[in-house]
From TrEMBL:
Cellular component GO terms, alphabetical: cytosol; enterobactin synthetase complex
Cofactor(s) demanded: pantetheine 4'-phosphate
Domain of life: Bacteria
UniProt-listed GO biological process terms: amino acid activation for nonribosomal peptide biosynthetic process; enterobactin biosynthetic process; lipid biosynthetic process
Every Carrier domain range: 1157-1232
Keywords, in A-Z order: Ligase, Phosphopantetheine, Phosphoprotein
Family, per entry: Belongs to the ATP-dependent AMP-binding enzyme family.
GO terms, molecular function: 2,3-dihydroxybenzoate-serine ligase activity; phosphopantetheine binding
Protein name: Amino acid adenylation enzyme/thioester reductase family protein
Length: 1595
């Protein structure tokens, strides 16, 4: 029997997820006096006889159409259970019954359970599938079961559900006009986007809950009467008020929801059981000026129209409207309203109906209402994966208030009263910070977690009384006074004058009280501000909090609560009786509760223990109490006069944790300390570079000779000498020589653009520049070897090093000699010394080089100089091993990269300092665990503090709950102070700006006195030095005295260790005539790495290529933005500042003229790797790596990945020399090598095949699993398999979900013109991944698939002749193993393996692809030998469809033919290979797979004759195509001139004299017709010539 249209839809949905119980409907009865099982059995039997639909099961007929089959003699199965004591213990048994999904084909979808309860009663739970039940049916079952149980006879039924189906089917042909109505009605509709409490996933699940309510009888009567007076049914009135609520909640005017109509227009079916309802759409435009009476009229009209057009099947409406589909959403609507009319009051008899507490829902929200006893009863059902119960409760409350409001003011605009309130909040919270950033003790997870803890305290009674007095005198409530003090402590902890605090309110969930503490007000003035804010908030509390979130924080951060993360509550009653406001779904950071009882102020701070430690909250409470006392005693003083600390804490910060004074060597200069090392260890090795080395004595002499020469050239005290040399012995000799003259050196990176070099030399006032010619001058040997007589002083200038400048001009930091000595003597003991070997790998223009060079040479260590441009794991490991390096410094970015690449590369180091940016806890933890012999340090310090100001020895193991790695305590002779904006010390745990004092602090900025005065400020905190350097870094002291880095006070960023002032880049951009506005910020890319992004308003069209080129002439590579975004205007806040949050994420910076696709397999492989490293969708073959987001560190990552994938050794410099895919492919082609690797199939199958194997059922093949359906042969296999009747094809498609998989499959079938040839109803898409364990399926899905299929056709593989074995192994070998596992799960199934003739190559030159296919064949053979039925089919070259010519664009022989046509010449070669057409191939494979061939068979498909290239050429000539002939060598030379890229690939094909792919004697040939001449010409015509009028085949 055919199904109704609605049943077909439900059947299809159930097939999409057969494990779902979302459509199971429980109907529950309580038999108060126990149950008579005989009577119940008779009643249920009679129920089935009365309603034949209950015995239907749902199968698929021969045509693949779902149909109903009656089950003769069916009786509803009834399970019996006994419940323990307790009123609802029966639910523990029935819950499993309800959760169990139905197999619609196996049996009628209805079952029952009787649970006998401890009180003598019994509960009957009937569960049936929605496919045989609707809302009216529930009432029918309830009435019929009771009637039949009592042996009474219900009124006879004249019709059956089967007759309803027949009548519906008879009218199906007339739906066109109804479809047309829905197309017009839903044209351009806007899907409803409700604000949710949790982010929506691709599968939000069916778990639900509900909030019940009822309107009082009087309100119900008034509501019904109003509806009647407006000629409107109550159902329409309910829908109207619900749509108004949704508009208020979402802020949308276009509100589209669903509803269901009973579908029982023919009254004969009123008491018939079955699925009758029709789903329809209600769409309303609710404008701000619309009254409820107007909305009611609109809704009435829409409801009447929906009723008139309900015959249009909903799935056809969806297909016609074609809404945008999102994973996790329904088509068209996710919110439903259902009114079930009037339901009679249940009787008081021995049997009563029981509401089912558990809820499953397919919708975000469902409002279900009915009338009973004169009241409107309702239930708001909601998805618990999206909404909290508290949100649903508030929605229900607003719905009731909306009913009341609209009845009182039916002709006023519905939202008139709220419009002004919304304007208030928009203004009040405009530009509100995204969060109140309290310094946390642990990292916040992306999705908030919450673990409640609390701390209680009592306010001193004297202070409490003073606070009451202050409140009274200033006309504020005690709550306002407490809020003002709370704002102050939060302001100091969050380091902001813009503080938001949430206050719970009944109607709005939460009021956001925003307080401005700027301008250093007195407390009395602050009270005035708080009073105004609080009164304004309470006067505008009717706007739902969720609406505010949607309006003001549309981009939700689900790691914390939106708008307000801290709450203050004044509560009545004992605090222990009050539950915390914070929950996992509303994860407040802090909540302060205050209760006034008997004159005593009691307080409790509830906090998220997943974010804060108890010691932090104890400190917070202590500071809060201290400020409460100040407020009570000194309300007229400015807030800046209030301290949160006592004397002991002040002493701890200023003295105990700053006790670092030691005596520096005298004199504290580089020449003097170096001379000491020369005297003590003259023959010790000072420098090593490659094969060269010098001793301390030799370095002393060399530098002396150069110093004499420099003196004659003008070098002397306070002069500056530029040095522009690569890392080398000569470079360090030059630095030492300069210092010996008394001059200072200015290091210039030779990689800098010339303009940048000239700028720095001019700004630094360099007297001269040392370059390679001077270092290599042989006449230097004529200079005296003795030291100069210059007396260098500790306060003399040693070097000037430039950093990025916020004014647009770089800053030259002036460092004195004593600062260098402070660095090398102040580090933790053991890092430096005569027994150490220190690596120098930093750029000379980077101040880490100061540590690496002078840290070694001034302590007697050996300095090993790296000549690698950027270190990667392999050269670093080689250097450590070769030179026994013991101490090294790495930027955190480079450290992370090496840990990711190969942590063992760091083995051998005794001391590793890491810094430059915040350290990654994950990478540090991995390194500490892997390197037990290495001690790690976090080294922190700006250039102005001479490399390091603080240092933190990292403990092993790293604490489990560490949020970050502290930057530690100050070095020797260094003092640090954490100060607020007014220069006051901040307490432990409270953030402030780090200030540094001591001899390591720079002299200032060269030639910039104003900037020097701004950054180097007077020291009022000790007498050891007169100045403090303001680092601009926000830090705090932890309880152990270590400093923790929190962020920046300005826009300065660190990228790969380089300090960058975005304003310097902005200045360079604004200097260009076409740039009108510019803003540069740092953003994280998809891999989590920071990169610079420039946002520009330009006067014409953005030419980022020209911009990059221009910037590269002025700025270092690390300062050139990775992306440029053109905007009409830069977004501004209401205060005129740049609105950073409104700046869009940069899209892939793709320029059409540069995104040429790869031209050969090498380029394809490179393009894939580049896209992964750069986090882009695509990369053009001619785009420079450094123009599309690449930088030196990413270049290092790229080199490693290319080396691993192509199995070559790629020097990093090659990437800099040939920075495009095209040029790099030219360089590396021919560099690959193949190694013979061992393979043990038995070992790989261990644990895969069970012992013994499951039985094999001799059933006809009807369910086939096909892999590779999105490939060339696979597309034709889909078509061929479906030409067989009763066959369903399950296609394993690499995709995230079924929708994406269908899209990939259809696109592939369309590509080859096959979509119209297949019956898509007999295709099931299985989203998975051959390369993933278990094929990427869940265990349940894997088991289900194993039970469904009869045959596996394994045609899928990752096909790429240029990819490495390792790259292909997961999909090609591992995927085969997983399919063998599938074939041996549940029952034994035959596995048909499609291989390639290249797998049989034995000459040692086969590709990684061929080798993976060979190993997969071995797995199949081994599985067969252990009893698994299987067969192997090797394929030769597969060419185009013999009828259409459609072929595979990636076929290498097509490339050969194309080149022949382009050159007009063919190579003189006898190369030949078997060719067969794809349609013939697929036909043969389908036939062989469905035939019961002998297991273990191994076949090779072969054409009737081999295809010679010369034959093809002659065939082309016969059409009039002019093609000459050249010797192979000459032809390859012509090809190289024509296309070097093609030459690099094809020379491998023609350079091999060994024929490949000969059939193995172990494989039986199956002869398939070879393409005839017409087919060959159609192939060339379709794939290469493609003329619209006359192709080769016509000629």
């Amino acid at each position: 029997m055919r199904l109704s249209l609605g049943q077909e839809r439900l059947w299809l949905v159930q097939q999409l997820d057969r494990t779902s119980a979302a459509y199971n409907i429980p109907i529950v009865f309580r038999f108060h006096d126990g149950v008579d099982f005989e009577a119940l059995d008779r009643a249920l039997g009679a129920l089935v006889e009365r309603h034949p639909v209950l015995r239907w099961r749902f199968v698929v007929d021969e045509s693949g159409t779902p149909a109903a089959v009656p089950t003769p003699g069916f009786r509803i199965p009834v399970a019996r259970r006994t419940a323990g004591p307790g009123e609802n213990e029966w639910q523990k048994h029935t819950a499993d019954l309800v959760r169990e999904p139905f197999d619609l084909a196996a049996a009628p979808p209805i079952r029952a359970m009787v649970v006998e309860c401890a009180d003598g009663s019994a509960v009957l739970c009937l569960v049936n599938h929605h496919i045989i039940t609707d809302g009216r049916s529930i009432q029918i079952v309830t009435e019929d079961v009771v009637t039949l149980y009592r042996s009474e006879t219900p009124a006879p039924l004249d019709v059956t559900y089967e007759e309803y189906v027949a009548a519906q089917r008879a009218g199906v042909g007339s739906v066109a006009e109804h479809i047309d109505y829905w197309r017009r009605e839903l044209d351009g509709f806007e899907p409803l986007r409700l604000p949710t409490d949790r982010p929506r996933s691709g599968n939000p699940g069916f778990a639900g809950d509900h909030v019940d309510f009822e309107l009082p009888a009087e309100l119900t009567k008034a509501f019904s009467s109003f509806a009647l007076r407006n000629r409107c049914a109550l159902s329409s009135a309910v829908a109207a008020v619900f749509q108004a609520l949704l508009s208020l909640h979402s802020g949308q005017e276009d509100i589209t929801i669903g509803t269901v109509l009973a579908g029982r227009d023919d009254r004969r079916f009123a008491d018939v059981l079955g699925f009758f309802v029709n789903t329809v759409v209600l769409r309303a435009h609710i404008t701000p000026s619309m009254s409820f009476r107007e909305l009611l009229k609109v809704t009435r009209t829409k409801m009447v129209d929906a009723y008139a057009h309900q015959q249009a099947p909903f799935d056809q409406v969806v297909a016609e409207v074609r809404p945008e589909r999102d994973a996790g959403r329904n088509a068209i609507f996710d919110v439903v309203v259902v009114h079930n009319g009037e339901i009679p009051t249940p009787g008081e008899g021995a049997i009563s109906s029981v509401p089912w507490a558990g809820v499953a829902t397919r919708f975000d929200l469902e409002l279900v209402t009915h009338l009973q006893d004169g009241k409107l009863h309702g239930s708001l059902v909601f998805r618990t994966g999206l909404f909290d119960r508290s949100t649903a409760t508030r929605l229900v409350g607003r719905l009731i208030r909306l009913v009341e409001h609209t009845l009182e003011h039916p002709d006023e605009p519905i939202f008139e009263a709220l419009r002004g309130q919304l304007d208030y909040w928009r203004k009040q919270l405009d530009d509100v910070p995204a969060a109140l950033e309290l310094p946390a003790d642990r990292a916040r997870p992306p999705l908030a977690s919450y673990r409640a803890d609390s701390l209680s305290f009592t306010v001193d009674p004297v202070v409490a009384e003073e606070l009451r007095g202050v409140s009274s005198r200033h006309d504020v409530t005690l709550f306002m006074t407490l809020l003002a003090v709370f704002d102050v402590v939060l302001s100091r902890y969050a380091r902001t004058t813009d503080v938001t605090v949430g206050v719970p309110a009944a109607g709005a969930k939460l009021l956001v009280l925003r307080t401005d503490l700027s301008g250093d007000p007195t407390f009395a003035e602050l009270l005035g501000r708080v009073r105004e804010t609080t009164l304004g908030a309470y006067a505008n509390q009717d706007i739902p909090f969720e609406r505010l979130v949607e309006e003001l924080a549309p981009r939700r951060d689900f790691s914390r609560n939106p708008l307000a993360q801290v709450v203050l509550r004044l509560v009545d009653g004992p605090l222990p009786d009050v539950a915390p406001a914070g929950t996992p779904s509303e994860p407040f950071d802090l909540e302060c509760l205050v209760a006034e009882r008997d004159g005593v102020l009691e307080a409790r701070i509830d906090y998220n223990a997943d974010v804060f430690d108890p010691v932090t909250i104890e400190r917070f409470a202590r500071h809060f109490r201290h400020l409460l006392a100040s407020a009570g005693a000194e309300p007229e003083r400015p807030l800046s006069a209030w301290s949160m600390m006592n004397d002991s804490e002040l002493r701890l910060l200023t003295e105990d944790w700053n006790d670092t004074t030691t005596e520096l060597p005298a004199p504290a200069t580089v020449p003097a300390v170096f001379a000491e090392q020369v005297r003590h260890r003259p023959q010790a090795t000072a420098l090593v570079c490659g094969e060269d080395s010098v001793t301390y004595a030799e370095l002393d002499v060399r530098s002396n000779r150069l110093a004499h020469r420099l003196r004659t050239l003008g070098a002397g005290p306070e002069t500056v000498i530029g040095v522009c040399l690569p890392r080398s012995i000569g470079l360090i000799t030059a630095l030492l020589a300069i210092l010996k003259t008394g001059a200072a050196y200015l290091p210039i990176d030779p990689e800098y653009p010339e303009e940048r070099q000239r700028l720095l030399l001019a700004d630094g006032g360099a007297r001269l520049v040392i370059a390679t010619d001077l270092i290599g001058d042989p006449t230097l040997d004529e200079e005296p070897p003795t030291a100069l007589g210059t007396g260098v002083e500790p306060r003399d200038l040693a070097y000037v090093i430039y950093t990025s400048g916020s004014t647009g001009r770089p800053k030259g930091v002036e460092i004195e000699h004593r600062a260098i000595i402070r660095l090398v003597t102040g580090l933790p003991e053991g890092i430096l010394g005569p027994d150490e070997v220190v690596l120098h790998a930093s750029a000379i223009s980077f101040d880490a080089a100061t540590f690496e060079i002078w840290g070694a040479l001034l302590t007697g260590a050996t300095c090993v100089i790296s000549t690698e441009r950027v270190l990667t794991a392999r050269p670093l490991a080689n250097a450590i091993t070769r030179h026994r390096i013991s101490t090294a410094w790495l930027t955190s970015s480079l450290f992370n990269h090496i840990v990711d690449e190969d942590t063992a590369a760091l083995t051998g180091l005794r001391h590793l300092l890491v810094g430059g940016e915040a350290l990654s806890v994950t990478h540090v933890r991995r390194a500490v665990a892997a390197l037990p012999g290495t001690r790690l340090f976090n080294g922190y310090g700006p250039t102005e503090c001479t490399t390091f100001a603080t240092c933190h020895p990292i403990p092993a193991p790293v604490p489990e709950n560490a949020k970050g790695i502290p930057i530690g305590r100050p070095l020797g002779n260094t003092r640090v102070y954490v100060l607020d904006e007014r220069g006051r010390l901040t307490p432990t745990g409270v953030p402030g700006e780090l200030h540094v004092a001591g001899p390591g602090v720079a002299r200032g900025y060269r030639g910039q006195p104003e900037l020097t005065d701004e950054q180097f400020v007077p020291n009022h905190h000790d007498t050891t030095s007169d100045r403090l350097y303001r680092t601009g870094d926000i830090v705090r002291h932890n309880a152990d005295g270590d400093l923790e880095y929190l962020g920046r006070v300005d826009d300065q960023v660190k990228i790969r260790g380089f300090r960058i002032e975005p304003r310097e880049i902005e200045a360079a951009l604004l200097a260009r005539p076409d740039v009108v506005q510019a803003a540069v910020i740092a953003r994280e890319d998809g891999s989590g790495q920071k990169r610079l992004v420039a946002y520009l308003k330009v006067s014409g069209v953005l030419d980022d290529t020209a911009l990059r080129a221009g910037l590269r002439r002025e700025l270092p590579e690390y300062m050139v933005p990775a992306a440029f975004v053109s905007l009409p205007e830069l977004p501004l806040t209401i205060n005129g500042k740049l609105d950073v949050r409104a700046l869009p994420e940069p899209e892939d910076d793709i320029r059409q003229d540069e995104t040429a696709p790869p031209r050969n397999p090498t380029e394809e492989t490179l393009a894939t790797i580049w896209a992964q490293v750069l986090g882009r969708e695509t990369v053009g073959r001619d785009e420079s790596f450094f123009d599309v987001g690449g930088h030196s560190l990413k270049a290092a990552q790229l080199a490693v990945r290319i080396g691993e994938t192509l199995r070559i050794d790629l020097p990093l410099r090659t990437l800099f020399e040939r920075p495009t895919i095209a040029k790099l492919a030219e360089e590396i082609n021919g560099e690959r090598r193949t190694d013979v690797r061992s393979f043990d199939p038995e070992a790989m199958l261990r644990g895969v095949l069970p012992e013994p194997l499951p039985p094999r059922e001799s059933v006809a093949v009807s369910e086939i699993l096909l892999t590779g359906a999105t490939g060339f042969v696979g597309a034709y296999l889909v078509r061929e398999l479906l030409t067989r009747e009763n066959v369903r094809v399950h296609c394993l498609v690499r995709a995230a979900d079924e929708h994406s998989g269908w899209q990939r499959l259809r696109e592939n079938l369309d590509r080859y013109g096959l979509w119209d040839d297949v019956d898509e109803k007999r295709i099931t898409v299985v989203p998975g991944d051959l390369a993933a364990p278990g094929l990427g399926l869940t265990s349940a899905a894997f088991e289900r698939l194993a039970g469904e299929i009869d045959l596996i056709c394994h045609n899928g593989a990752w096909v790429d002749a240029l990819s490495s074995y390792e790259q292909l192994e997961g999909a090609n070998v591992g995927g085969t193993r997983e399919l063998i596992r599938l074939a041996a799960t549940t029952r034994l199934k035959r596995l048909q393996f499609v291989s390639t003739i290249s797998a049989g190559e034995e000459n040692g030159s086969r590709s990684g692809y061929a080798e993976t296919k060979s190993h997969a064949e071995q797995l199949i053979t081994t599985a067969y030998e252990r009893g698994m039925p299987s067969a192997i089919y090797r394929l030769p070259r597969i060419v185009g469809d013999s009828r259409t010519g459609q072929g595979n664009t990636r076929d290498i022989m097509l490339r050969v033919l194309r080149i022949i046509l382009e050159l007009g010449a063919a190579p003189d070669t006898e190369i030949e290979e078997p060719w067969i057409a794809v349609d013939e191939t697929a036909g043969a494979l389908a036939r062989l797979g469905l035939e019961q061939r002998r297991d273990g068979s191994r076949f090779v498909l072969a054409g009737e004759r081999p295809m010679r290239l010369t034959y093809l050429v002659e065939l082309l000539r016969s059409t009039g195509t002019g093609i000459g002939t050249l010797p192979v060598a000459d032809w390859l030379s012509a090809l190289e001139a024509h296309s070097p890229e093609e030459h690099a690939i094809l020379k491998l094909l023609f350079g091999s004299a060994t024929p490949t792919g000969r059939p193995s004697s172990e494989f039986d040939p199956i002869v398939v017709p070879s393409p005839d001449d017409g087919a060959l010409l159609r192939y060339v015509d379709r794939m290469l010539v493609r003329t619209s009028t006359e192709g080769l085949s016509r000629k």
